[in-house]
Amino acid sequence: MAVIYRSIFALAGWTALALQYGLMVQNQPASAIPGLTLNFFSYFTILTNVLVALALTAPAVAPRSRLGRWAASEGVRASIAMYIAVVGLTYHFLLSHVWDPQGLLWVVNGLLHYVMPVAFVTDWLLFTPKGRLRWIDPIKWLALPLLFTAWTLVHGYASGWWPYWFMDVPALGLARAAFWAVVMLSGFLATGLVLVAIDRVFGRGDRRRAAA
């Protein structure tokens, strides 16, 4: 069951990423492709969906490989669930009102921001062993959002391009941008703590059933 589920959504994830990239670079001059490619991989949505696609693909096609064992780790899967859940929530509450995709872009947008978050969190709920996470783990998982924030600042000031309005320091000003950074990091942490709470509840249930 898990292999079939993961294979289906891995295919959906890779397809959505490929289509999103293709739509981004279509009809663009060759000279613009390197910069557009860098921008493409400077979206947290894209980076997280790549992680999701890898975490779905590896256990399904190569479970005994180094990548497969990494992707099957409870901590890795929970951290990716945290990241992709925040992607979906952030898009819905902060970005959807300023973005109106049409046609194929609407389909791809829905896959990346709604379908894949729900699919991966569901995968985590159904197929990942529970009861091994610690309350400190969500703090450790903040490493990726912090690195992304640092990269966005460096890339943004160097290129003048910012992936999200709430990270656009020149437009918002330092104080407002810092406020939104704290809001986002708090959102990541809160989501991670919810996942740990769910993990511990499910873990206790599994232990009680095993002891019965």
Tags for this entry?
212 residues, 10 helices, mainly alpha
Characterise this structure.
The chain is mainly α and 212 residues long. 79% of the residues lie in helices and 0% in strands. The chain is built from 10 helices and no strands.
List the helices and strands and how they pair.
Elements: H1 2-25, H2 33-40, H3 44-61, H4 66-72, H5 74-95, H6 104-127, H7 137-141, H8 143-159, H9 169-172, H10 174-211
First CA to last CA: what distance?
26 Å
Mean pLDDT: 95
Order of helices and strands: HHHHHHHHHH
Radius of gyration, CA atoms, in whole angstroms: 18 Å
Q: Characterize the biggest β-sheet.
A: none
Structural class: mainly alpha
Number of strands: 0
Percent of residues in helices comes to over 70%
What's this entry about, in short?
The protein has 212 residues and is an all-alpha fold. It has helices at 2-25, 33-40, 44-61, 66-72, 74-95, 104-127, 137-141, 143-159, 169-172, 174-211.
